[in-house]
Every structure is written in structure tokens, then in C-alpha cells.
Amino acid sequence: MQQAIPRDTLLDAICAYDYPPVTYDYAHQREVRFPTMRSLDDYLCCLLHSSEVRSVKDGLCGVLYWGYYRTGIRDHRVDRFRTMVTTSQLEHAIKTFRALDGTSLRSLQKLGLPEFGYMAFVSKLRTFLDPEHYCVLDSKIASLAPLTTRLTLQPTHIPITPRNERAYAWWVNACQSLALRLCARPTIRPVDVERGLFYLVDHGRRNLAEHYLENDRI
């Protein structure tokens, strides 16, 4: 039987996660800051599952706005997406989002959506489509030892290949397993664990994050 994780370690990191819960409301042309990441998750999930092309487009832009929020290229990336994406692509995306089964990273990549070609943003999209069951795998997380041995990495990105999709599935399962061990909070999701581990790496505690993964035994 697995032991519960001490409350004052990983759970504290989850609670301390400090990436801004912010995106942009394109319908009203204003930035929106949410009280919690769960509120942001719900907002973007609702847009992405809309049957209206405009709402889905705004949801995808919202994912990019949030993902690039701390960078100087945020507005450029969002504007490029809004300019390049076609109605046909968005209509295809609506149908695809309804039929997703499992990780589906290659299915999402095959949509050809601008800016959603590699692991970091395709996994962000998968997560916001189903924040109860999936989580993000970006370059910061990919630097953790248990993942570097499973992933095939390129200097500037993580390609979506069969091997890397298997690594992503392992990562989701690892976060789910850690979430189940946080007995103090039964509502912890895989994405919450991922964000806690991201916080540890982002604040110079990579060894502790790797310790949790290496000792999870899944």
C-alpha cells in the first residue's frame, strides 16, 4: 500500500503555484484575472467545448494568451493565430474535440491549428479540454529526470511522436497516482500535481520534484 505524501510538502507547492490565472476575453476586449486556476480551467474548457466557431477560436486564443503570459511574444503569437486559423480548421476542431479518446495528442496535432504543433501547447490544449484528467508537459517539466529518459527531445521543442505520446501518458498517470496519495485533499487533480511540481522546479527545488516522481513506483 502506498504511503500518503506529507501534507506540508507537495500539497504546499500545489497551493503556492503562482503562475497567473489570467487570460483574455475576446468578446469584450479585456484581460480577465480569475480568483483561482480552477476558475480559469472551467472558463477555457467551456469555450473550447462550444459548438460556435467564434467561441472555440476565443478559447484557443485564451490558451495561448495564458501560456505565453510571462513572455514578450504573447500578443504576437495570439495575433498570428487569429490571423492564420481558418473557419474550416475550427469546424474540424469542434468535431474532433467531441470525439477525443485518451491522450489524443496526435489527433490534436493533425488539426494543423497554428501555434499548436508541439507538446507544450498541444498538452495545454488537452488539459483545458479536460482539466479533471489531463495535465501539461512542457520544457520545464520535461527537464525532470524520470521524463528525460522517456522523451525524445529537440533543442527548441518536444515533438509529438508515438514515443513521446507514451511518455505523456506516463506523466499523466504519475500525476494521477500522486494526486490519489494526497489523502488530505481528495479533490486534487493530475493538473494540480503538475502545477505543484512545476512550482518546485520554478523555485529551485528540482531535486524534490524528481524525488516524488522517482518514488511513486508506477
What does this structure look like?
Helix content is 56%, strand content 4%. The chain is mainly α and 218 residues long. The N terminus is likely disordered. The chain has one domain. The two termini are 12 Å apart.
Low-confidence stretches: 1-7
Q: Kindly provide the radius of gyration, computed on alpha-carbon positions and rounded to a whole number of angstroms.
A: 17 Å
**Helices and strands, in N-to-C order?**
HEEHHHHHHHHHHH
Largest sheet: 2 strands, antiparallel
Number of domains: 1
Helix content: 55-70%
Total beta strand runs: 2
Please state how the strands of the largest beta sheet are arranged side by side. Answer: 1-2
Shape assignment: globular
Output the structural class.
mainly alpha
Count, helices: 12
Arithmetic mean of pLDDT? 93
The rounded distance between the terminal residues' Cα atoms is: 12 Å
Q: What proportion of the residues form beta strands (DSSP E)?
A: under 5%
Core attributes:
218 residues, two-stranded antiparallel ribbon, mainly alpha, disordered N terminus, 12 helices
Give the gist of this structure.
The protein has helices at residues 10-16, 37-48, 53-67, 74-84, 87-98, 105-109, 119-129, 139-142, 145-148, 162-181, 190-202, 206-214; strands at 22-25, 30-33.
